[in-house]
Write a structure and sequence with these properties.
Layout (H helix, E strand, L loop, with lengths): L1 H14 L7 H8 L7 E3 L2 H13 L4 H14 L3 E5 H8 L2 E2 L3 H6 L5 E7 L8 E5 L3 E4 L4 E14 L2 E12 L2 E12 L2 E6 L6 E4 L4 E2 L2
Parallel strand pairs: 1-2
Antiparallel strand pairs: 2-4, 3-12, 4-5, 5-7, 6-7, 7-8, 8-9, 9-10, 10-11
């Protein structure tokens, strides 16, 4: 029941954009970005997004999901540069090792989210080099280009370029679900059940 209610609340936050926009949606609207084209998120805007996340107790995946699905509705696609993410990381704790396994900030060239412009994935990440990291359930392997074809229904869905090595088996990631507040479920093909993680909310470093 708690999982169901969380999904409904998160979806309502996105659907209600026109009547009761969140601060993040208002911030994104204020940028004046062009529809049906790729826009750049400036450092000041990215900082404001992190401040919004900290204020509302959101983790990085919840923040990216809310921004990405809202921008998709507005027919906008944006790019977040890796250099700016590294500057952000000097001011904010983005979630620690569990986040770094899936979003290695030190290697990110850029992230794009939003409208599937020219049939591109709704979230894609480009790294300077391939990345692997062992964390709790096994080794995560990220290609230089990875991401998710769709962001919908609290899912980062149809992933590509991400594998998980568990014992002697190398499995394809099949999706990441935001199933409760500050929690994700990681699904892999052939894995008996998802691995559920609590991800720390974004917080300002002291």
């Amino acid at each position: 029941m708690q999982r169901f209610l969380y999904s409904i609340v998160l979806l309502l936050c996105i659907v209600s954009a026109g009547l009761n926009a969140t601060e993040l949606q208002e911030l994104l609207d204020s940028e004046g970005w062009e529809e049906n084209s790729l826009n750049t998120v400036e450092l000041v805007t990215l900082t404001s997004m992190m401040e919004y996340a900290e204020k509302n107790g959101l983790m990085i995946f919840e923040t990216l999901y809310e921004a990405g699905t809202y921008l998709k509705q507005q027919k906008i696609r944006v790019r977040i540069n890796g250099d700016d993410l590294r500057r952000i990381e000097q001011r904010f704790d983005l979630g620690g090792d569990r986040v770094q396994a899936l979003l290695p900030v030190e290697k990110i060239q850029f992230i794009e989210i939003g409208l599937a412009l020219n049939q591109k994935p709704e979230m894609e990440v480009y790294l300077t080099e391939k990345h692997s990291d062992f964390l709790e359930i096994g080794d995560f392997y990220l290609s230089r280009h990875f991401g998710f074809q769709t962001l919908q229904d609290t899912w980062f869905d149809d992933p590509f370029g991400i594998k998980l090595k568990y014992l002697f088996f190398k499995l394809d990631l099949s999706g990441i679900e935001l199933y409760e507040e500050s929690k994700i479920a990681i699904y892999a093909s052939g894995f008996p059940k998802p691995k559920r993680w609590r991800i720390k909310a974004i917080r300002l470093l002291e």
